[in-house]
Amino acid sequence: MLVALAMAAVAVWIATHTYWDYVTVDNPPQGEAVGNRYYAFEKLTQRFAIHTRQVPTLRALPAADGVLLVDDVRGALLDMGALEKWVTAAAVC
């Protein structure tokens, strides 16, 4: 009983003498991440053994079991009909 009381007293002391505060840490990108905005995404997919590549145009879509990440559809040279066929083919697989 005395040990439980001492532990409770320590827990109360810690709770009353500590606080959470937000600290802003300036950690700008370094190395390849400076010029490649998808650097973290590419490294994550590599950990899952997924091959990634950046292409200048979407005229040739990836395989039906592939993954497609489009940042800006307005700026992409994209055939919407071909994209719909690609999505349908992936759903069938």
Task: Give a verbal description of the structure.
- The protein has 93 residues and is mostly helical.
- 41% of the residues lie in helices and 0% in strands.
- The chain contains 3 helices and no strands.
- The longest helix has 16 residues.
- The radius of gyration is 25 Å and the shape is elongated.
- The model has no long low-confidence stretch (mean pLDDT 83).
Q: Which word captures the global form?
A: elongated
Q: Regions with pLDDT < 50 over 5+ consecutive residues? A: none
Q: Major beta sheet, specifics?
A: none
Q: Output the helix-strand order.
A: HHH
Count of separate DSSP helical elements? 3
Helix content: 40-55%
Rg result: 25 Å
What percent strand?
Answer: under 5%
Distance between the termini: 64 Å
For the secondary structure, the number of strands is: 0
Q: Give average pLDDT, whole number.
A: 83
Instruction: Output the structural class.
Output: mainly alpha
